[in-house]
Amino acid sequence: MLAGLMVFSPGLVLAQISEKEMAKLQKGAVITFTEKDQGSGDRIAVGRAILTAPRDLVWTVLSNYSSYPEFFSDVQELKIIKREGNKVWMQVRYRNLFPFPDFKCQMLAEESAGDGWLRMTMEQGDFEKYYTSWKLTSLDSSRVLAEYRVYRYVGWWWFPLVPTSMTNESMVSDHIQALRKQLKLVQEQKVTQPGDVIKPIWRKSIFRDKSKDQPKPEAKPPKESHPESQPEKK
Questions:
Q1: Residue 233 pLDDT > 90, yes or no?
Q2: Contact 164/152 with Cβ under 8 angstroms?
Q3: Is the model's pLDDT at 207 over the cut of 50?
Q4: 167 near 38, Cβ under 8 Å?
Q5: What domains are there in the chain, each with its CATH number?
Q6: How far apart are CA 217 and CA 209, in angstroms?
């Protein structure tokens, strides 16, 4: 079933990208398409984008599953059940269209931080089938080529007039853009930590208390005491 998600070779991912596609990615585009998995026959949605961040930072954000509800709009709740080696089990509630109930499922995440890949598979839940994978390839010290692959099938009864491939492709684009925004937010927060910010001089000059700039009145000398003014001692 996961044959279409098991391609993790960085060289192979880069070899599949044409010069025209790479030129678009360099300009910040998110490129999405679908391809048929040779093993399962599933029509998998694929998305690619260049993320302006070190690979370690991208990995840190992606593997912080508890934060997913903060930036992935379709993830309503997520609770880690257990961790064992490179595997993480979690309960996830995905937001559904109103007035339908949310989707609930148990997902298994398998990680390989050294190779830069992460895949998630639904073990049980409300979807007919659901699996995803991320592959991160460093282009240099501050840029990463991210490839995101998704297959989510609700069932034959769910809006049959809307192709699954279309909704999956839209989800791939949304998730990549959400990850891009989250990375930018994390980077901005790192820069603005206390002690890291240098306040510009103009703030001091504009917002100072101008009353302090007024010249202070000169102190009057103390009055001299004259002997004749003092009462005579008896």
A1: no
A2: yes
A3: no
A4: no
A5: 3-191 (3.30.530.20)
A6: 18
